Amino acid sequence: MQYWVDLQASRQVKDQAERSLANMALKKLRDNLADQTRRDLTLNLVNSTTADRAWQTWFWFNHFNVFPQKSHVGAVLQSYVFGAIDGALDMRFKDLLRAVTAHPAMLMYLDNVNNTKARGNENLARELLELHTLGVSGGYSQQDVGAVAKVLSGWTVQLNGPVPEMGKTIFRSGQHDSASHAVLGLNVPSGGAEQLTVLLDRLAGHPSTARHIARKMGLWWFDEPPEAAVKELAHVFESTCGNLQALWQSARALHQRMGSAPVFKDPMHYVLSAAQAICGDAPVANPQPLLRWMRLLGQPLMARSTPDGYPLSGSAWLNPGQLAQRIELAREMVANAERLMAPAPISPDSPPARRPRFKLNDLRSTPWGQQWLQQNPDMRGMASGEDPQDASDLWALYLASPQFMYR
User: Fold this and answer.
1) Model pLDDT, residue 342
2) What is residue 272's three-state secondary structure?
3) What's the pLDDT at 359?
4) Number of domains in the chain
5) How distant is the alpha carbon of residue 97 from its chain centre?
């Protein structure tokens, strides 16, 4: 609420210099709100009791990606992530699709606030078909994009007026093209706001959507999913009317049943699994170093500027530069283990600690460590020692090892 109060107040400032300062303060507040969302999600991802649902939240956020630094998106990011997305995880795909499409974050990010019957904007319409539902090969045409844009016309965000209403989605019937429209050969009857519900229900139930979503989830679990896996997940999607939990659990069971080659960790998986390994049973309380490491490895959380989201396949991240950066960060990660467990003031770029101030958990006590030591018997003597520096060096070597790069 404070953001919208300050936005309204900034518009009353006449002096150019003072208005510039007010806009800078607004940007800082907007960035702080987005950073809080990142910290909250990171803590959910790294701590075991909340990790599975948090990974689902991130998967769907990445699918319906928005960029917090555009317009006022950062100010509503918390609502988008933990309201629209997390709030729909126990529902169906069509419920999630409606929640994100009509959310202020999406409407601002893909410029639907500028989409009226007098002057159309096709950005959201195109991504709705190409990325969110049917997929690039889903069988739609440019004519379909134009028709979808007309159905979306008039859906905008309240950015003026009473402060309690600012930042909320509104439907302006006077700016909406209420005529009937043909999308994918199907008729969307003439009308008002209800046209969007009709459109989204049909897109969610389209066979191309089932296959597109099945393949994306297959990329998450298999890196390069077998065709049999994609077909089975598409069947689950269709037979359960897009039940999100049924789809997620089916993908997990399918992966266990079919098996697959180890998947190279993307930066998020690498950083979060490293934190879990070095902290052991102690919960991570300070997410700030994790956010810094993800940024350094090229995957800053919720900071992808393009609507396609980050690549899901591990192979997309496997390159010499990525490996070299991880090797360099391994020692820093170990040195900051104690800092991860202690809440710290918000300072995204504060310098890391030089040396650990406590004795690290025994590498032999972790499942990852046991497997690694079995594969590297020459390290067992070092692992059994009590010297803190030996322990630090061994942990850094472990986090930089080829075995730890895969999940």
Assistant:
1) 77
2) helix
3) 42
4) 3
5) 15
